[in-house]
Amino acid sequence: MLEWRQLCNEIFPGGHDVALGGEVLIGTGNTDGRQVAVVGTVDHAGIGMQVALQLAAAVLDVVREHPRRPILMLVDTQGQKLSRNDELLGNNACLAHLAECFALARQNGHQLISVVYSEAVSGGFLSLGMMADATYAVPGAQIRVMALPAMSRITKLPLEELEALCRDTAIMGPGVDNYVALGAVQSIWNRPLAACLQTALADTNRDDTRRDLGRSRGGRTGAEKIARLVREFSA
């Protein structure tokens, strides 16, 4: 896993002004003479109301001040903040607002790219990284919906049984490789990272190909068929 300063220095050899405010990263980087907006989180941040609204404001600033500028999300989150105060005040609405801001940016022509450089978990990952046109990860990053011991407590299934399922089924398993197999992660970035970003920026296809990738990679063999049946039933 990379520290955020090292990550930004490697991604933007042309320079950047990415700065940390609390647990949120905001700034701009230069790649091959092109300006890229940066938003993200650090220190396994829990995405609570304050962080969500801070990120959302940064995204809206980019949409308003820098039309069509690509937005790079640097993801390091333990998920939605597990705080009674945040839940009572409507953190779910703040997470939805953040996701809607990214959707607005996409509708206004901003290319969205996310990179998991440390940890990505559940609702925090959904509202930050998974809203991108394409999601990537660096070697050593950790991605999961729920830790297996917690999953065991919720499902009442023995931990050993869940561990066995994870060995055979990418849908059950944590880890970057499983998310690549599912198609949720486009690919793993290996150095030089600046070249990886330039390649990602060159891919302007905005179609959601995750379901097709999951089928071709053997991680989601039934998703495409089920989606087709649902569309046929709804027609």
Question: Could you characterize the architecture of this molecule?
Answer:
By secondary structure, the chain is α/β, with parallel strands linked by helices. It is built from 11 helices and 9 strands. Strands 1, 2, 3, 4, 5, 6, 7, 8 and 9 form a 9-stranded mixed sheet that branches. Helix 2 (49-65) runs parallel beside helix 4. It is globular. The relative contact order is 0.12. The model has no long low-confidence stretch (mean pLDDT 91).
Provide the descriptors you would attach to this structure in a database record.
235 residues, alpha/beta, nine-stranded mixed beta sheet, 9 strands, 22% strand
What's this, in brief?
The chain is α/β, with parallel strands linked by helices and 235 residues long.
Tell me, what's the shape?
A: globular
The H/E string reads HEEEEHEHHEHEEHHHEHHH
Number of helices: 11
Derived from helix and strand composition plus strand pairing, the structural class reads: alpha/beta
Mean pLDDT: 91
Strand content: 15-25%
**Secondary structure: helix percent:** 40-55%
Largest sheet: 9 strands, mixed
Please give the oligomerization state of what you see.
Answer: single chain
List how many beta strands DSSP finds.
9
Q: Which residues form runs of ≥5 with pLDDT under 50?
A: none
